Amino acid sequence: MTPFAAVVLAAGAGTRMRSSRHKVLHEAAGAPLLEHVLRAVEPLGPRRVVVVVGHLGEQVRERFAARAADGRLVFAEQRELLGTGHALWQAEEQVLAAFAPGERGSVLVLVGDAPLVTSRTLERLLEAQGDGPGMTLLTATVPDPTGLGRIVRAPDGTVERIVEHKDASPQELAIAEVNGGFYAFDLGVFALCRRLSRDNAQGELYITELLDIYRAEGLPTRAVAAASHEEVLAANDRSELAVVDRVLRDRARREWLLAGVTMIAPETVFLDDTVRLSRDVTLHPGVHLLGSTTVGEGATVGPYAVLTDCRVEAGAVVPPHTVAVGETFRAA
Question: Are residues 82 and 12 in the same domain?
């Protein structure tokens, strides 16, 4: 794969969360939203990951200090919240420092509050971008596009424009294909950021305007469709947070079922994504396994047990209605 650096946009105020905690630190399936995004990009081997912070940025720096210890995760600050294009621009120095002069590479841009994107989709985005000039964006067709940027295609099927919801005409508002907020650019993107305009309804520097600039320069623009519309869902308020939490937990249950775990009434079983299970484990209705809990091969967890940071050894049986933190359960 072409060498790349990743930029995660996490500078927004997140006022719709109505919280004193930064939006990307709110948890879904037992981990911060930003943690899920970082886990999606890590297997692809980025040269560097730059998290752009602004409002309540110190909270994010503190929470992810351990990840930043080796220098592969760094932070850039957006002091003035002037839009997504401006946020990307703030990562210029950190990104370019990861490449040798004249080296080809790409910039993968992710959204810090959209935890459902998969590694495979990001890989497809980077593969489409390759090591040449231009940009690639992720699109999705969604049931309800309200508030999202619409994809306007030319007669030949190429992406012609991205229209923000507040700038869209009635005809454009009827479009169901939306901008997912994930992009791959060539390393020349930062020079083009200097040409962004604030002449729009929000008075901000939109990252979406880069599509117009690339097209005006005659550079390639490409689109990759997400495997599922769920991948582009973001958590802007508590209602949306509940939706992405459900999707993540559904994914976890399905993965463990396919890996040889039995769940009786699986829709009632809650698993954090940090939980680890072995083959032939049986989970009864109402089980909650949280934190770093591990369950060994052939173990059974009885109905309505709630285990946090526990160890259940192979063959052990956890009685119904057990509530435990940090305990070890051994086979009889």
Answer: yes
Query: Does residue 147 register a pLDDT over 90?
Result: no
Q: Are strands 106-111 and 27-28 parallel, antiparallel or unpaired?
A: unpaired
Those residues with Cβ within 8 angstroms of residue 238's Cβ, 6 or more apart along the chain or in another chain: 17, 18
Answer whether 0.85 is exceeded by the pTM.
yes
User: Residue 72 pLDDT > 80, yes or no?
Assistant: yes
State the amino acid at position 138 in one-letter form. L
Residues 6+ apart with CB under 8 A from 239: none
Q: Locate 58 and state its tokens.
A: 């110190």
* Catalytic site residue from 16, 61, 67, 222: 16
Alpha helices, DSSP H, located in the chain:
33-41, 57-63, 84-89, 92-96, 119-129, 170-173, 189-193, 209-216, 238-258
Question: Which residues constitute the domain of residue 151?
Answer: 4-232
Which positions ≥6 away from 309 have C-beta within 8 Å?
A: 290, 291, 292, 293, 325, 326
Pick from 317, 324, 326: nearest CA to 296: 317
Distance between CA atoms of residues 92 and 90, nearest Å: 6
Q: Residue 16 catalytic?
A: yes
| Closest listed residue to residue 35, CA positions, set 21, 17, 18, 51 | 51
Burial 122-135 (b: 16+ CB within 10 A, else e): bbbbbebbbeebbb
Separation of alpha carbons 112 and 115, rounded Å: 7
Mean pLDDT of 152-173: 89
Query: What CATH number does residue 74 fall under?
Result: 3.90.550.10
Residue 15: partners with Cβ closer than 8 Å, 6 or more residues away: none
Two structure tokens written together for 329: 């359960």
Q: Are residues 225 and 92 in the same domain?
A: yes
Instruction: Give residue 256's identity as a one-letter amino acid code.
Output: W
Instruction: Assess whether 122 and 224 both reside in one domain.
Output: yes
Strand (E) or helix (H) holding 161: strand 159-163
Work out how many domains the chain is built from and give that number.
2
On whether both 224 and 290 belong to a single domain, the answer is: no
Please check whether residues 120 and 157 belong to one and the same domain: yes
Give the CA distances from residue 245 to residues 171, 190, 289, in Å, rounded to whole numbers and listed in that order.
Answer: 33, 34, 15
Residues 177-194: pLDDT tens digits?
Answer: 999 999 999 999 999 999
